[in-house]
Amino acid sequence: MKSLTKFMDSFGAILLAIIWIAPLLFAFWAATHSTSDAVNLNLLSPWTLENFRVAWSGAPWLKYFFNTFMLVTMILIGQFFLTTLAGFAFAQLQFPGKDFVFILVLMQLFILPEVLIVENYAMVSRLGLFDSILGVGMPYMASAFGIFLMRQAFKGVPIELHEAARIEGCGLLGILWRVYVPLAKPTYLAYALVSVSTHWNNFLWPLIVTNSPDTRPLTVGLSIFGAPENGVDISIISAATLMSVAPLLIAFLIFQRQFVQSFLRTGIK
Amino acid sequence: MSAHANLERRRQAIYGWLLLSPAAVLLTVFAFYPSIATLWSSLFSRNTRRNPTEFVGTENYADLFADPTFWLVVKNNLFYAGITIPVSIFIALSMALWANSKISARGFVRTAYFTPTVLPMIAAANLWLFFYTPGLGVLDQIGSVFGLPSVNWLGQPETALWAIIIVTIWKEAGFFMIFYLAALQTIPEDLKEAADIEGTSRWTYTRRIVLPLLMPTTLFIAVNAMINSVKLIDHLFILTKGGPSDASKLILYYIWEMAFAFFDAPHAAAITVLVIAVLGIVAAVQFLYLDRRTHYQ
Questions:
Q1: For residue B296, what pLDDT band results from cuts at 50, 70 and 90?
Q2: How far is it, in rounded angstroms, from Cα B168 to Cα B155?
Q3: Which residues contact B28 (CB under 8 A, 6 or more apart)?
């Protein structure tokens, strides 16, 4: 009886797992076969890399990859800088108006940048940042979520270390740089993974703010490439899709454990 | 001595505001000011060549409430939330219970569940396009084996929103599983042993012990799923573009379309204000809940 339920458990779990990765498997199948073989699910048909070649030459992918890479790097650097300073101020300094400002920051957690697209677009245009990678990244840099996260991390640092560094003659910024930042390394790593995967995958805002292949990130490029108006067939769309998700997917498969733990660390407040 | 303390206090105040200022400037420019500007511009008429902008009060809101498309979009989004939230929570819980039990191929199972989470929504939509395409798609191929007629899943009003919903559930269930998995690992082993000694069935153990202990996680996930039901609309751009005849149009897509396809910023602003109001209520509820939880700790 017990082994039967165990078998049923394994069976159900594996069945669901197969259903869950089926879309990826089918895309892989379609990308490596000619369109007619792919749609007929002809299992004995020959494999081909032709679709990847056609997809690759159909759009400036290298440029898109580069743009996405620049975008996530820029956002990450901006976020590290701004949230470290602000998180430290909220965690370890006493100043008038602190609680009020902190509540304002928490409010931003719920005013999603996605919802404010209309006014943020106007703001980015006013600043002359329309159709620039900086324009795509800037609204995300002062992340309320990141500030909250760094504040929590810095609050966990023992005050004795702070005092010791001060007695040694370290200034406030020196203490932040030499004591707090090194101790918060795991939080930085977790935040980096979440931030990179979020912005690598972001679509709506870059769609609005970019207008040329020179600034367009992968997701927007992929959506334009696959648009039905372009009449690209399913095998080639699958090849392009796999190509654009490959870096993140491979990174995920290699660093799976860290990835999952990062999502956990940043998710549970 | 008090002069020294005073100096220290002033020093901290200066440093505090200095460290805060870069983030404060950006938050003001890209969150607070736009929120207020949205509210403000929702009270003015649209700027056209013939009629310059003028103050119209709540007229934009009145227009929306009189517009059947607006109500259809609201209804769609409520339906979208009403299905995706409970179903993805249920699937996430099943996944976590399985991924946490001693089954064979556990590593593979966990990876498979979590993989959709790292894909962009646009890529997910492209993958599912291959399933849904009439005639050629995988679903139709499977259907034809059983002699079922070809269905245009994305092209008919009855099924388009369902097709969108399935992609969303597929994308987010694995993400929510992670939170359940973490919570499950904090449940002490002795509870299971005690239940075994008492001869409790597995179902009773799950229902009476595991589920109540997972309640805080469930609430956390529910709030996230609620926010996602506003935010996750990228796949609409690939799969349906809100059609056919608005049957799968969701609020954020509607805002985008209003502002960037019809260039009607005031009405887009009015919808945005309504969405922020709803999100604000969700936030308030969560803060109250978080407050209660800290009392228990």
A1: very low
A2: 18
A3: none
| pLDDT score for A267 | 56
Round to whole Å and give the CA distance between A116 and B32. 10
Rounded distance, CA A54 to CA A65, Å? 17
Instruction: Encode chain A (269 residues) as per-residue pLDDT tens digits.
Output: 567 777 888 888 899 999 999 888 888 888 888 777 766 666 777 788 888 888 888 888 899 999 999 999 999 999 999 999 999 999 988 888 888 998 888 888 777 778 888 889 989 999 998 988 899 999 999 888 899 889 988 988 888 888 888 888 888 888 889 889 998 888 888 888 888 888 998 999 999 999 888 889 999 998 888 776 666 678 888 888 898 888 888 888 888 777 777 767 665 43
Q: Which of left, alpha, beta for A127 (phi over 0: left; psi -120 to 50: alpha)?
A: alpha
CATH number for the segment(s) B69-296: 1.10.3720.10
pLDDT given for residue A41 in this prediction: 66
Strand partners, B44: B55
Please, what's the largest Cα pairwise distance for chain A? Answer: 75
* Nearest of A246, A219, A68 to residue B126 by alpha carbon: A219
- Contact (Cβ atoms closer than 8 angstroms) between residue B204 and residue A57: no
Contacts of B15 in chain A (CB under 8 A): 89, 93, 95, 172
Provide ipTM, 2 decimals. 0.84
Asked if B113's CB is within 8 angstroms of A17's CB, the reply is yes
- Whose tokens are 């990835």? That residue is A259
Q: How many CB atoms lie within 10 A of CB A58?
A: 14
Domain boundaries, chain B: 69-296
| Distance (Å, whole) CA B101 – CA A7 | 12
Cross-chain residue pair B115–A89, CB shorter than 8 Å: no
Please report, rounded to a whole number, the percentage of residues in chain B having pLDDT higher than 90: 24
C-alpha span between B230 and B232 (Å, rounded):
6
Q: Is B119 on the interface with A (CB under 8 A)?
A: yes
Q: Give B150-157's long-range contacts (Cβ < 8 A, gap of 24+).
A: B154/B239, B154/B240, B155/B244, B156/B244, B157/B244, B157/B245, B157/B247
**A256-267 and B157-184 are packed helices; what angle lies between their axes, rounded to 10 degrees?**
90
CA pair distance A179, A161, nearest whole angstrom: 7
Q: How far apart are CA A194 and CA A200, in angstroms?
A: 10
Q: CB contact, 8 Å: A141 with chain B? A: yes
Q: Which CATH class is domain A61-267?
A: mainly alpha
Beta bridge partner(s), residue B55:
B44
The shortest C-alpha distance from B202 to chain A (Å) reads 10
Please give the angle made by the CA atoms of A71, A110 and A208, to the nearest 5 degrees: 40
Of A17, A111, A248, the CB nearest to B35: A111
Q: Which of A234, A238, A268 sits opposite B182 (nearest CB)?
A: A268
